[in-house]
Amino acid sequence: MLERHELDAFLTLAEELHFGRTAERLHVSTARVSQTIAKLERRIGVPLFHRTSRRVELTPVGRQLEEELRPARSLITDAVERAVDAGRGVTGLLRVAFTGPAAGQLLVGATQVFRERHPDCEVRISEARLADVLPWLRAGEADMALTCLPMREAGIVTGPVLVREARMLAVPVGHPFARRATVSVEDLARVTVLQLPEALPRSLREDCTPPRTPAGRTVTPGPSAMTLNEMLTLVGAGEGVCAVGAHARRYFARPDVAYVPFADAEPVEWGLVRLEGGASARVRAFGEAALSLVE
């Protein structure tokens, strides 16, 4: 039987494939992570990870174990939460974070629906920067958050998706692309594309700035920015371009930035995220209220 710290170390390392980042996520030393994984491998009898000086990779056995353990842990923790909540009802305090004004407006509507359904539960909403979302969830400062996706991280559950909006490219008003009706994802290989900060999940960073186009052409990375306002300021200054959701035209209209629709890009998705094992009655009820608002 795996102990909790072994399970956490294995699944987090399987996600990060980096001992240092895994240690940071778990708030332990790198040596502790290495010792835990080595002990687990001795017990199982085969290596779970290939380690070199440059990279860490799952072995076939490690990959199979990860694929079977992750959904099982989620099922167990959610079942325990549901059992605890069955006797409590939807009461207490629910803390919900959001990123950006469009998400804030949607969150206000969902909160109104939730309060009508569950008047005995207090809801407290607060705005977070993108880089704050996961730290707030892990620190218990928020129970859930409404933010842009994807947020594929170990220990994080996403969904439901509430909004899908067209993807657009923010460019300086004097840029040749600003005179076009649409742009293509392949056009990203012709410009410098601004980055989201390293602190954010790789899935979200690569959704915003893919390393390559679908045809395999390299995308040139530009400076990074912590907020959308900061990123659009860099766009206006000619430092690069960035992909945004269509809501930016309304909430972030600027005289120095033009928004050009993509003709072939996947839409930007917005949804709720929470910690794995954090599916309390309050959290589930809020997700149902938010989904009913957009259906």
Automatic annotation (TrEMBL):
<keyword id="KW-0805">Transcription regulation</keyword>
<dbReference type="InterPro" id="IPR036388">
    <property type="entry name" value="WH-like_DNA-bd_sf"/>
</dbReference>
<keyword id="KW-0238">DNA-binding</keyword>
<dbReference type="Pfam" id="PF03466">
    <property type="entry name" value="LysR_substrate"/>
</dbReference>
<keyword id="KW-0804">Transcription</keyword>
<dbReference type="GO" id="GO:0003700">
    <property type="term" value="F:DNA-binding transcription factor activity"/>
</dbReference>
<dbReference type="InterPro" id="IPR005119">
    <property type="entry name" value="LysR_subst-bd"/>
</dbReference>
<comment type="similarity">
    <text>Belongs to the LysR transcriptional regulatory family.</text>
</comment>
<dbReference type="InterPro" id="IPR036390">
    <property type="entry name" value="WH_DNA-bd_sf"/>
</dbReference>
<dbReference type="InterPro" id="IPR000847">
    <property type="entry name" value="LysR_HTH_N"/>
</dbReference>
<dbReference type="GO" id="GO:0032993">
    <property type="term" value="C:protein-DNA complex"/>
</dbReference>
<feature type="domain" description="HTH lysR-type">
    <location>
        <begin position="1"/>
        <end position="59"/>
    </location>
</feature>
<dbReference type="GO" id="GO:0003677">
    <property type="term" value="F:DNA binding"/>
</dbReference>
<dbReference type="Pfam" id="PF00126">
    <property type="entry name" value="HTH_1"/>
</dbReference>
<protein>
    <submittedName>
        <fullName>LysR family transcriptional regulator</fullName>
    </submittedName>
</protein>
